[in-house]
Amino acid sequence: MPVHNAEIAEMLNEVADLLEIQGANQFRIRAYRNAARMVADLTQGVSEMIKNGEDLAQLPGIGKDLAGKITEIVESGKLGLLDELKKDMPGDLSGLMRIDGLGPKRVKVIYEKLGVSTLQGLEKAARDKKIRELPGLGEKTELEILTALKRVQEGKKRLKLPEADETAKLLLAHLKEVKGIRALEAAGSYRRRKETVGDLDILASVKKGTRIMDHFVNYEDTGTVISRGETRSSILLRSGFQVDLRVVEEGSYGAALQYFTGSKAHNIAIRKMGVQKGLKINEYGVFRGRERVAGKTEADVYKTVGLPYIEPELREDRGEIEAAQKKKLPRLVTLDDIRGDLHVHTKLTDGHSSLQEMAEAAQKRGYEYLAITEHSQRVTVAGGIDKKALARQIKEIDALNSTLKGFTILKGIEVDILEDGSLDLPDDILKELDVVVCSVHYKFNLPERKQTGRIIRAMDNKYFHIFAHPSGRLINERDPYPVDMEKIMEEAKDRGCFLELNAHPDRLDLTDIYCKTAKGMGVKVAISTDAHSINSMDFMRYGIGQARRGWLEADDVINTRSLKELKKLLKR
Question: Which CATH architecture has domain 5-155?
Answer without folding.
Answer: Orthogonal Bundle (1.10)
